[in-house]
């Protein structure tokens, strides 16, 4: 009679990577629904195009690297990357934007660095930066929220705008934008709330003047508030399911909050406050879905706290003093670069060893 | 003698390429490779300086005390850079303006002082001249490859502005491969140069790896041993 002998731990978490990734996708559903409600059909098409491109690129890469494409695709990580990218870009961006971004994310950022588990940068964010730098016009053309403009675009026209850049009535994205925004203001191009603040401050308006514009609701950016609340809800689901630990979201939001409070105390009429920073742009998406990527984030718990706090502070600094309106992608990439150093200095001591000896 | 030249050529163009392997002189490499014309212009200028400085350093190598050799090399290189700069100012003024500060900056190109120190100060002048030519050619080829990559991706053209380098007739050299509604700005911006450089180095390593694998696979034929003595 023989016994199976194995060293501890004996009680395993039975969750596989594919199950984790499926749950992450599931947790994104509330946020996607909120974006669908406020920004229309575009998000659905972007998700479909990104998903399809990601699966194709992933299979081709796996075949080129002489690995089994079926096994590789079953971990769903490519789809998570595609989804994160698709929800970050403007819903009516032309199809080639998302296709180029997804291919770059999968082929260059993920597979050239060695595939899943080896990429030093977050693939979705690296692709986002590539797109933002290469196609600044397309990447900042957000329509005003449907609920604000009352100008909803049907699923067919959305698809046409994405694929051929014209609706069935022959309007381009810019014209649709002009119509949608024209009902609200005279010839002011609508932007995301953070963009709006940046433009207004550059034009010499004060913060309170900027905040009185209709894009800002009572609390934070109109529509964006609810998108962020929905992602917060999805993130809490992930926490409850123990897909992610509390360290990264808490440290990121905490650092961002502290920075925002200090900033608004120091210059109340030049730097947007806490509510704007936490509930505009992609803050919640970043805190719960992007920065928590287990591959490109720091490893130990102490490391995670440092890493996420760094992301939070960087988001604040780049948003307030940088050239681009939102800063999630840049902040995450810069923090990814610091991860090896953070890991080096936060290595936990082994159980039973004297502390501090490495 | 011919094997010495073969080694020098192989080293300069591939095995020990200043840009791809030694990773020297990356500043101009990354800064001016927006178009093929700029890349070719700077490449040729660097090559001329490299050949000239290699010959001179080699000729004076026995009279220069070891302690002050670096300042001497720098003065020699600076002399040739000034020659090239004034020549370009006179004959290819448009390119001179386009390259701007990067022509005087050839002085600081570590590939040049590296060759002076590593090769020219130890070898005779004709070998040094050939070494400079090959190293310069290798550097120029990488510049042109990177320039072509970035120009195609960023503007969809090749040899745009060739008239700056070659004169008016070269205006027709410009090839419009395709035209974009929206250019891929990344390829024109500095990050694109870094990415493109990374791809070039990766491509070289990939080719080397495949070559090595092929060599390893090929069976090594055992030499037939002819016994001429009896077994003791």
Automatic annotation (TrEMBL), chain A:
<keyword id="KW-1133">Transmembrane helix</keyword>
<feature type="modified residue" description="FMN phosphoryl threonine">
    <location>
        <position position="192"/>
    </location>
</feature>
<keyword id="KW-0285">Flavoprotein</keyword>
<keyword id="KW-0597">Phosphoprotein</keyword>
<feature type="transmembrane region" description="Helical">
    <location>
        <begin position="246"/>
        <end position="267"/>
    </location>
</feature>
<comment type="similarity">
    <text>Belongs to the NqrB/RnfD family.</text>
</comment>
<dbReference type="InterPro" id="IPR011303">
    <property type="entry name" value="RnfD_bac"/>
</dbReference>
<dbReference type="Pfam" id="PF03116">
    <property type="entry name" value="NQR2_RnfD_RnfE"/>
</dbReference>
<dbReference type="GO" id="GO:0055085">
    <property type="term" value="P:transmembrane transport"/>
</dbReference>
<keyword id="KW-0812">Transmembrane</keyword>
<feature type="transmembrane region" description="Helical">
    <location>
        <begin position="304"/>
        <end position="321"/>
    </location>
</feature>
<protein>
    <recommendedName>
        <fullName>Ion-translocating oxidoreductase complex subunit D</fullName>
        <ecNumber>7.-.-.-</ecNumber>
    </recommendedName>
</protein>
<feature type="transmembrane region" description="Helical">
    <location>
        <begin position="125"/>
        <end position="143"/>
    </location>
</feature>
<keyword id="KW-0997">Cell inner membrane</keyword>
<feature type="transmembrane region" description="Helical">
    <location>
        <begin position="95"/>
        <end position="113"/>
    </location>
</feature>
<feature type="transmembrane region" description="Helical">
    <location>
        <begin position="215"/>
        <end position="239"/>
    </location>
</feature>
<dbReference type="GO" id="GO:0022900">
    <property type="term" value="P:electron transport chain"/>
</dbReference>
<keyword id="KW-0472">Membrane</keyword>
<keyword id="KW-0249">Electron transport</keyword>
<feature type="transmembrane region" description="Helical">
    <location>
        <begin position="273"/>
        <end position="292"/>
    </location>
</feature>
<keyword id="KW-0813">Transport</keyword>
<keyword id="KW-1003">Cell membrane</keyword>
From TrEMBL, chain B:
<keyword id="KW-1133">Transmembrane helix</keyword>
<feature type="transmembrane region" description="Helical">
    <location>
        <begin position="90"/>
        <end position="113"/>
    </location>
</feature>
<dbReference type="Pfam" id="PF02508">
    <property type="entry name" value="Rnf-Nqr"/>
</dbReference>
<keyword id="KW-0997">Cell inner membrane</keyword>
<dbReference type="GO" id="GO:0012505">
    <property type="term" value="C:endomembrane system"/>
</dbReference>
<keyword id="KW-0812">Transmembrane</keyword>
<keyword id="KW-1003">Cell membrane</keyword>
<feature type="transmembrane region" description="Helical">
    <location>
        <begin position="20"/>
        <end position="51"/>
    </location>
</feature>
<comment type="function">
    <text>Part of a membrane-bound complex that couples electron transfer with translocation of ions across the membrane.</text>
</comment>
<keyword id="KW-1278">Translocase</keyword>
<dbReference type="InterPro" id="IPR003667">
    <property type="entry name" value="NqrDE/RnfAE"/>
</dbReference>
<keyword id="KW-0472">Membrane</keyword>
<dbReference type="GO" id="GO:0005886">
    <property type="term" value="C:plasma membrane"/>
</dbReference>
<keyword id="KW-0249">Electron transport</keyword>
<feature type="transmembrane region" description="Helical">
    <location>
        <begin position="63"/>
        <end position="84"/>
    </location>
</feature>
<dbReference type="InterPro" id="IPR010968">
    <property type="entry name" value="RnfE"/>
</dbReference>
<feature type="transmembrane region" description="Helical">
    <location>
        <begin position="125"/>
        <end position="149"/>
    </location>
</feature>
<feature type="transmembrane region" description="Helical">
    <location>
        <begin position="182"/>
        <end position="202"/>
    </location>
</feature>
<comment type="subunit">
    <text>The complex is composed of six subunits: RnfA, RnfB, RnfC, RnfD, RnfE and RnfG.</text>
</comment>
<keyword id="KW-0813">Transport</keyword>
<dbReference type="GO" id="GO:0022900">
    <property type="term" value="P:electron transport chain"/>
</dbReference>
<comment type="similarity">
    <text>Belongs to the NqrDE/RnfAE family.</text>
</comment>
């Amino acid at each position: 009679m023989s016994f199976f002998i194995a060293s501890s731990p004996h009680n395993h978490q039975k969750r596989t990577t594919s199950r984790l990734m499926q749950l992450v996708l599931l947790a994104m559903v509330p946020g996607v629904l909120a974006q669908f409600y406020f920004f229309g059909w575009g998000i659905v098409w972007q998700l479909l195009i990104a998903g399809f491109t990601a699966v194709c690129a992933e299979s081709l890469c796996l075949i080129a690297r002489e690995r089994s494409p079926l096994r590789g695709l079953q971990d769903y990580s490519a789809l998570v990357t595609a989804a994160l990218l698709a929800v970050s870009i403007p819903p009516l961006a032309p199809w080639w934007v998302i296709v180029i971004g997804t291919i770059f994310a999968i082929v260059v950022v993920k597979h050239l660095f060695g595939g899943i588990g080896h990429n030093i940068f977050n693939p979705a964010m690296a692709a986002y930066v590539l797109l933002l730098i290469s196609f600044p016009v397309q990447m900042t053309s957000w329509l005003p929220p449907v609920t604000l403009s009352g100008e909803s675009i049907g699923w067919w026209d959305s698809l046409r705008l994405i694929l051929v850049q014209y609706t069935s009535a022959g309007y381009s994205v810019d014209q649709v934008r002009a119509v949608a925004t024209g009902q609200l203001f005279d010839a002011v191009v609508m932007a995301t709330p953070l963009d709006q603040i940046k433009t207004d401050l550059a034009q010499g308006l004060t913060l309170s003047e900027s905040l009185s514009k209709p894009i800002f609701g009572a609390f934070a950016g109109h529509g964006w508030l609810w998108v962020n609340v929905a992602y917060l809800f999805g993130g809490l689901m992930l926490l409850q399911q123990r897909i992610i630990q509390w360290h990264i979201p808490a440290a990121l939001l905490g650092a961002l909050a502290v920075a925002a409070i200090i900033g608004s105390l120091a210059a109340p009429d030049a730097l947007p406050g806490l509510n704007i920073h936490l509930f505009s742009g992609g803050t919640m998406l970043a805190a719960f879905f992007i920065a928590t990527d287990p591959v490109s984030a720091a490893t130990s718990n102490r490391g995670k706290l440092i890493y996420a706090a760094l992301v939070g502070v960087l988001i604040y600094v780049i948003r307030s003093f940088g050239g681009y309106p939102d800063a999630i992608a840049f902040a995450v990439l810069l923090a990814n670069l610091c991860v090896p150093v953070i890991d080096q200095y936060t290595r936990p001591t082994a159980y039973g060893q004297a502390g501090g000896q490495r | 003698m011919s094997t010495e030249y073969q080694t020098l050529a192989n080293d300069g163009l591939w095995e020990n390429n200043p840009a791809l392997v030694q990773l020297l002189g990356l500043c101009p490499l990354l800064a001016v490779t927006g178009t093929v014309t700029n890349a070719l212009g700077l490449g040729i200028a660097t090559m001329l300086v490299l050949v000239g400085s290699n010959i001179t350093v080699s000729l004076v190598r026995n009279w220069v005390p070891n302690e002050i050799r670096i300042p001497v090399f720098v003065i020699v290189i600076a002399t040739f850079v000034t020659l090239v700069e004034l020549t370009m100012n006179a004959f290819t003024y448009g390119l001179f303006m386009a390259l701007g500060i990067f022509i005087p900056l050839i002085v600081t190109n570590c590939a040049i002082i590296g060759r002076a120190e590593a090769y020219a100060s130890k070898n005779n002048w004709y070998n040094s001249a050939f070494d400079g030519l090959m190293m310069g050619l290798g550097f120029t080829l990488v510049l042109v490859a990177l320039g072509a990559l970035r120009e195609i991706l960023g503007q969809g053209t090749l040899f745009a502005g060739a008239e700056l380098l070659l004169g008016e007739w070269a205006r027709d050299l410009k090839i419009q491969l395709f035209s974009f509604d929206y250019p891929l700005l990344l390829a024109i911006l500095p990050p694109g140069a870094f990415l493109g450089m990374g791809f070039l180095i990766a491509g070289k390593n990939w080719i080397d790896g495949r070559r090595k694998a092929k060599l390893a696979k090929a069976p090594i034929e055992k030499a037939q041993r002819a016994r001429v003595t009896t077994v003791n």
